[in-house]
Design a protein that fits this description.
single chain, 287 residues, alpha+beta, seven-stranded mixed sheet, 16% strand, globular, ECF_Sigma-70_Domain, transcription, DNA binding, RNA polymerase sigma-70 factor, ECF subfamily, sigma factor activity
Length: 287
């Protein structure tokens, strides 16, 4: 297979791999480098022997990021958020504004996790990768990987839901729900971070629809699919984290769990699986 044919297979996976590496590494340039390394490894291998290219690329990119996170722990560096892509001098005020816009708060919370915790959380909670596959990436048992994910989730929730942030988080959730109800694409783009990720339980999806969608524009383009549940959704705290719920006849039928990047939504998950809903601790959001 020549390089053009190989690139045609690889390029559709690039946005998802870039979003994955961005959340694992916290930097756009580092994410681009990791994805490029994955491309080079694909070039150096035999694609004909790969049964699931998307899964293979996710695993390879994740392992590259794990190595870089571990190296970062061995030689700590200050993480200030995304770098501006253009070379040359950067105005400090402009740099701070860009860092805030892409989610410094979330990156700081993620950076407080160990490399293994960060990988377990991002792969499972954001990109819906099964724990069995994450265990292979980390070289740990499935049970140990599940514990890493649970611990990371608690730490992320604790860091993302400080009491002083709840009022602001509620306003973001209400803006998001209102935009969905009205089918307002512009308002959705305003409340979502540019590289936002949307995940939906398969039980809520029509056949052929993807469980994971990456990118604010891609999410907004299919937003009307979930306008129905949004009309009934109300803000709530789910396991102590900002979210929204749909309750019908006293029964929880849909839950939406959010992760924020400052004043925007970095990712959200629409939960409809009865077992997962039953395991959620739902509280009224303090007004």
């Amino acid at each position: 297979m020549n390089d053009d044919e190989l690139a045609a297979l690889f390029e559709p996976h690039r946005p998802r791999l870039r979003a994955l590496a961005h959340r694992l590494l916290g930097s756009v340039p580092d994410a681009e480098d990791a994805v490029q390394d994955a491309w080079l490894r694909l070039q150096g291998g035999s694609v004909e022997e790969i049964g699931n290219l998307g899964g293979w690329l996710t695993t390879v990119t994740s392992r590259i990021c794990v190595d870089r996170l571990r190296a970062r722990r061995a030689r700590p560096e200050l993480l200030t958020g995304d770098c501006i892509d253009q070379p040359g001098p950067v105005d400090p005020a402009a740099e701070a504004e860009v860092a805030d816009s892409v989610g410094r708060a979330l990156l700081v919370v993620l950076d407080s996790l160990s490399p293994a915790e960060r990988v377990a959380f991002v792969l499972h909670d954001v990109f819906a990768v099964p724990f069995a596959e994450i265990a292979v990436v980390l070289g740990r048992s499935v049970e140990a990987t599940k514990k890493l994910g649970a611990r990371a989730r608690r730490r992320v929730q604790a860091g993302a839901t400080a009491p002083q942030d709840l009022a602001g988080r509620r306003r973001v959730v209400e803006r998001f729900l209102d935009a969905l109800r009205r089918g307002d694409i512009a308002a959705l783009l305003d409340v979502l971070s540019p590289e936002a990720v949307r995940r939906v339980d398969p039980v809520l999806l029509a056949p052929g629809r993807s469980e994971v969608v990456c990118g604010a524009r891609e999410i907004a383009a299919e937003a009307l699919v979930f306008a129905g549940p949004a009309r009934e959704a109300e803000p709530a705290l789910l396991d102590g984290a900002p979210g929204a719920v749909v309750v019908r006849d006293g029964e929880l039928t849909v839950a939406i769990i959010f992760v924020f990047d400052g004043a925007r939504i970095d990712s959200y998950e629409v939960v409809g699986d009865p077992e997962r809903l039953a395991a959620l601790d739902v509280e009224r959001w303090p007004v």
